[in-house]
Specification:
By secondary structure, the protein is α+β, with helices and mostly antiparallel strands. About 55% of the residues lie in helices and about 20% in strands. The protein contains eleven helices and 13 strands. The strands form three sheets. It has a five-stranded antiparallel sheet, with helices on both faces. A five-stranded mixed sheet has the order 7-9-10-12-11, with helices on one face. Helix 8 packs parallel to helix 9 (about 305-325). The longest helix is centred in the first third of the chain and has 50 residues, at about 1-50. It is elongated and about 155 Å long. The model is unreliable at about 420-430 (pLDDT under 50).
Length: about 425
């Protein structure tokens, strides 16, 4: 009987313990569930706060969430402040660009307009709202524009006619990202007119000066025959200055002609070997034995162009070297193929040219040394003539020099004009 009671007591105690354990487990589970629900609620509030487009104040929290919400709210305020500053900066930049009198457009790699200022809209006849996204080449129908935008020389300015009126526009392209570029259009109509007037004035004055100079030179020569010894030096100086003035007039007329033609009309395959041989003969006479002249001309390398103009360009380069190279020094010139391009190169052992002068050497009347140029009889127009002739032949003038080490002038013709091995080819001119 006592054993049965003991067993019954144990069973009852176990049942009570089990019931208590179940209650404790349920309590713990409910507590954990409450904590999880609290965190999920805070996460939901955080998600709603971060994703909502409406502006909410800082979300209140308890415990660790209070610090998280406060920190995030601070970051949000800082981000909003930065965004406002950026928006103000962008707005100010656009307002500044809009006030610029030059036309400014943003174009993408497909030459489509992304944005433009009011000046660009006026110059090109565009609507700032409707024409964004349209192709620039549909507005500027000049066939050169598309090639200019797509080519490697887009950094060079391009002169075109405005589509709305008779104004002249100068276009410049400035890439500022891998996909976008800034196109700047400037009205250069007045500058174009002034330049045309200047060219016409120089051409007319030069032409009118030719006749009186011829008369003066004739009278000076006649006076020199019967002049006494005391007048000989004076008349000789008059003759020298008359000849110099006549040379300047002839060079100005040559430049005016080159400016007027714009492009070569009658191109032929030039016998450059014959041209260089003629230049060499004239160079020997001009030097008068004062220099060591060495020259070579390939007979198989020819170019298409104007024989007379090429002879003028080559002679100007050689005569420059003769004028400015001291006696007893060496001057060499050659016509050859260089990297697939026909090249005329003149090298002297003269005093050299300082680097700051080289970019301006082809400007009209620009002189490195005024006294030296006058003493040698230079007009200051030779290299300008060379540049204009080379431009007409799509060629480039390269200049390399160093003080005390001489100078090299190099006329480089493009592959499109170069013909190699034409000995038995087309009939040559020149």
């Amino acid at each position: 009987m006592s054993d049965a009671l003991a067993i019954g007591g144990l069973v009852t105690a176990g049942a009570i313990a089990g019931a208590l354990f179940d209650h404790v487990w349920i309590g713990i589970s409910l507590a954990v569930a409450a904590v999880l629900m609290w965190h999920l609620l805070n996460l939901y509030r955080l998600h709603r706060w971060l994703t909502s487009r409406r502006r909410f104040g800082p979300v209140s929290g308890i415990g660790v969430w209070s610090g998280i919400f406060a920190a995030l709210h601070q970051r949000q305020r800082e981000s909003q402040a930065r965004r406002q500053r950026l928006l103000r900066s962008v707005r100010e930049i656009r307002e500044a660009i809009s006030a610029i009198p030059a036309g400014v457009l943003i174009v993408d790699q497909d030459q489509d307009i992304q944005w433009l200022n009011p000046s660009a809209a006026t110059m090109l006849g565009l609507d700032r709202r409707d024409d964004v996204g349209s192709s620039l080449t549909q507005t500027l129908t000049d066939p050169r524009v598309e090639a200019w935008l797509a080519g490697d020389d887009a950094t060079e300015e391009l002169l075109v006619d405005a589509p709305t009126d008779k104004t002249k526009l100068s276009l410049s392209l400035i890439p500022f990202s891998s996909t976008q570029s800034l196109l700047i259009a400037q009205d250069v109509t007045q500058l174009h007119r002034v330049e045309a007037m200047r060219k016409d004035f120089v051409a007319n004055v030069s032409h009118e000066l030719r006749t009186p100079l011829t008369v003066i030179s004739g009278y000076v020569e006649a006076m020199e025959i019967d002049a006494s010894d005391e007048w000989q030096m004076i008349i000789r100086r008059m003759s020298e200055q008359s000849d110099r003035m006549r040379a300047i007039v002839e060079d100005l007329l040559t430049l005016s002609r080159l400016d007027a033609i714009g492009a070569l009309e009658d191109e032929v395959v030039v016998n450059v070997h014959g041209v260089v041989t003629s230049v060499a003969n004239e160079a020997e006479a001009l030097s008068g034995g004062r220099h060591t002249l060495v020259w070579h001309a390939s007979s198989t390398v020819v170019v298409t162009g104007s024989p007379s103009d090429l002879r003028s360009a080559f002679m100007n380069l050689v005569s420059n070297a003769i004028r400015y190279t001291p006696e007893g020094r060496r001057i060499s010139f050659r016509w050859y193929l260089r990297d697939g391009q026909a090249t005329f190169e003149v090298t002297d052992d003269g005093p050299g040219i300082a680097a700051e002068h080289i970019p301006r050497l082809t400007e009209r009347f620009y002189r490195v040394s005024t006294d030296r140029s006058r003493a040698t009889g230079g007009t200051g127009l030779g290299l300008a003539i060379v540049k204009n002739i080379l431009v007409l032949h799509d060629a480039a003038l390269e200049i390399e020099s160093e003080i005390g080490s001489g100078t090299t002038f190099r006329a480089v013709f493009p592959r499109e004009r170069t013909i190699d091995g034409a000995k038995d080819g087309p009939e040559l001119a020149g």
